[in-house]
Amino acid sequence: MKKDIHPSYHEINVVMTDGTKFTTRSTMGKPGDTMQLDIDPKTHPAWTGASARLIDKAGQISKFNKRFGDFGSKK
Description:
Layout: E1 10-15, E2 21-26, E3 34-36, H1 45-48, H2 50-68
């Protein structure tokens, strides 16, 4: 590796939204800095399960039906 062109790779502390903490290595900040997360796998809808996705799909379907009419029902 070339000297003096790579960022410092050091340990930082990460605090999750529920207050749990862990240590990891990163190029962020200085050694010992703390990263406070606003969104993490415990709270973000992408990781919390299908319930949020089903609500989103239902909203998209009703929006489509409102805009283009209800093609699925027989009148």
